[in-house]
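Note to self: keep these together.
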Amino acid sequence: MKFFFSFLISFFLFIGSTFADESIRFININYIVNNSDVGVSLNKIIKNKTKKIETDLKDLAKKIEKKKNKIVSQKNILKKEEFNKLVKDYEKEVEIFNELRNKKQTDFDSFRVESKKKILDLLNPIITDFLQSNSIKILLQKEKIIFGDDNLDITEKILRIFNDKHKKINF
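Structure:
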């Protein structure tokens, strides 16, 4: 009798797992976002914007540093009131510089998030259609899976479909 129940439980578990196997897949969304044609072009734009922001801020920081050095070198030559006025002007410039740097960083972060969101918004209907047409019931993130059969990974299929539908988008 024990053998019969063990066999029966094993049989249902085996059948259940084979049916479940057909309707569960996993995907690496980050891979698609970063390696799609659109994602690669976005990464180039982000890299160029980063370089431009860094260059602009470095140039501005150098100008402020020169002004600081000039003020320090004139400390013994200028009257105390004139020196204090120059120091206050310098401090205002540093404050403006810090505000500008923070604003540029905030704008850049916002651009990056919105651009990736745009890609995800375009990717979502493709994934939904793929799941419906292939009768997939559950889709998991690859990053959350410890072990999985590579045959269940649909990342490359979705990447090809996404690249075919979206060659270029405006950011």
